[in-house]
Design brief:
122 residues, mainly alpha, two-stranded antiparallel ribbon, 6 helices
């Protein structure tokens, strides 16, 4: 997927958007001149990609909180962060879809919401 755009990947079991954002904020504070992203390759603009990752993470968490359940979350994620628009590269999109990114994200975020709600929502 080298050269493909950033796309959030938040599989279960330990999704924690606040911790993820804190890690990204700390990384941004370091003002890196380069980022070498696993499965994607070098980032053309480290700071812009960190900012993008933070926005995507926040949006994913917001969608999870607003959803009425896993199926609703799947629909919300597919609409808000479609790989064809976010990633761009058709080969990378096919790989994301083959790997089940949407189901994994929905499962991870749903588990996070359930933990945050004390298991009240699944």
């Amino acid at each position: 997927m080298a050269g493909a755009g950033l796309h959030p990947a938040l599989p279960p079991p330990d999704v924690d958007p606040a911790a993820g954002d804190a890690s990204l904020a700390r990384l941004a504070e370091l003002h890196p001149t380069a980022l070498l992203l696993a499965h994607i390759g070098p980032s053309p603009d480290a700071q812009a990609d960190i900012d993008l990752a933070r926005r995507q993470l926040a949006l994913s968490a917001e969608l999870a909180r607003a959803s009425s359940g896993r199926d609703d979350l799947v629909a919300r994620l597919a609409e808000a962060l479609p790989p064809a628009r976010v990633v761009g590269d058709p080969g990378a999109v096919a790989l994301w879809e083959m790997l089940g990114w949407l189901d994994d994200m929905a499962d991870g975020l749903s588990a996070w919401v359930a933990r945050e709600d004390g298991g009240a929502r699944q």
